[in-house]
Amino acid sequence: MHRLLQRQLNQARDPNGGVSYERLLKLVNEAYCENEANRTRADRANEVMAAELSEMLAIKERATSLESAKRIAEAANMAKSQFIANMSHELRTPLNAIIGYTEMLIEDAVAEGGDRQISDHENILRSAQSLLHLINEVLDLSKIESGKLNIEIEEFHIGEVVFDAIADVRPAAAANGTELIVEIADSDMTMRSDPYRLSQCLRNLLSNAVKFTADGHVTLRVWREEQASGSFFNIEVSDSGIGMSPDQLARVLSPFEQGDGSITRKYGGTGLGLTITQQIAQLLGGDIIIESELNRGTRAKLVLRADLAQLSSAA
Ligand SMILES: Nc1ncnc2c1ncn2[C@@H]1O[C@H](COP(=O)(O)OP(=O)(O)O)[C@@H](O)[C@H]1O
Ligand SMILES: [Mg+2]
Fold it and tell me: What domain range is 209 assigned to?
């Protein structure tokens, strides 16, 4: 006899040994109900497990398709960067020839005293140089995006980089009636970083300050600061120019973003300078902080590690 039934029969017996069929029926019924309840619970657990399993499968499928989409996007990005790098090289070679020959033509025209020719040639030279600048910016951005912008660390006097960059913008400042002020405690202070990239950042900030300031002043301040995480140089360019609204300021660190449509028409440019400057500042162990007020002026500060070699060797 089935063991469960045997137990139920025993439980249904009265003290005299007789079986109460009413009790037996109740016991059997109870066992049946419990069985049913167990089965329902098991069915429910199975359903939950099946749902979880199919969700896991769906997640796995999504992860696989995301992974392959990521690989495709990365490959496309690499191809884009490679294409831009090659194109930039192909464009720069003839452009450098145009610039070189135009400079020679200007020299000849100066020697011959042909004023009209000098000014025409100077126009060609300016256009060629701004095209070269744009190509170099696009190339830098593509190098940064593909992680191929090399940083070359060496020790140098910060004053040299600062005064070279200032000399570069002096003619533009003079043309705009803007005074250039340099405040540097000690130009012999040394920095271990990439002087070429620092100079690029500085020229970007100074050229913006001068471009957007007429009959005002542009001040370059340099000071060293000890922080808990190490020594830093603060290099700040402030101007009394057109400034930016909070909305414009929020966008200018994104590639190809300029204050607004009128900026391009009035001042030219491509909106890459600040994006590149910020990316380089981060590669140099720092960042850029920009504050601005419309019609009052702008203050752009680079905070860069004084000794980048220390950071690289610690990393
Ligand atoms: N010193 C500044 N004063 C006012 N606006 C500025 C200044 N520097 C940058 N901007 C704004 O930020 C935009 C982006 O600057 P940037 O990335 O250097 O590009 P670009 O100089 O080619 O326009 C500029 O078009 C301008 O609207
Ligand atoms: Mg610029």
Answer: 154-314
